[in-house]
Prior knowledge:
- This is Recombination protein RecR.
- The N and C termini lie far apart (61 Å).
- This protein has helices spanning 4-14, 21-33, 36-52, 69-72, 87-96, 123-130, 146-160, 184-192, and strands spanning 54-55, 62-63, 77-84, 101-105, 137-140, 165-168.
- The protein folds into 2 domains: 4-52, RecR Domain 1 (Helicase, Ruva Protein, domain 3, Orthogonal Bundle), CATH 1.10.8.420; 57-168, Dna Topoisomerase Vi A Subunit, Chain: A, domain 2.
- It is an alpha/beta fold.
- The protein contains 8 helices and 6 strands.
- A 4-stranded parallel β-sheet has the order 4-3-5-6.
Amino acid sequence: MYEGAVQELIDELGRLPGVGPKSAQRLAFHILEADPQDMKRLVEAITTVKERVKFCTVCGNVTEQELCNICRDPRRDPSIICVVEESKDVLAVERTRSFRGRYHVLGGAINPIAGVGPEQLRIRELLTRLNDGAIQEIIIATDPNLEGEATATYLARMLKSIGITVTRLASGLPVGGDLEYADEVTLGRAFEGRRNALS
């Protein structure tokens, strides 16, 4: 264990998601050895993002304005909303260039072990968006893990009573994958999500 400022830096870096003790130590020593101007730019970038970036008042995506660029874009279809867990998921969907609707960022997923229930997510804001009657379909695009599935099921059951079409992203076998290596859940989902071979 180091002393003083070095250990404090390692500890703070270790609090970042996905950064373990070894990575935190490597990052800390990289910072110590880096050019001071590079570190000044890093500090300025972090400070700027904390000062200027906020969440879109409509969808919850990151933005520097009141509304994000997707909510401001009149070419987007306002009748379809893709519900995702985090802002980074918006970017992942956008990279596909397959979706031209709008988004709703929940800010996480239901995770009782971590103390995250529906009330900690932006579900109330989603329901508010549905009040105007313009939305015809909700696409649930949560992660295909336990928390994402719990969140998707919760949303689907809740939205079913409203009478809006609720769909879930298909999941199954990856392109180029081998059946023999697929786990049972993935293979089962592939069967459930099968479609006409000629469509």
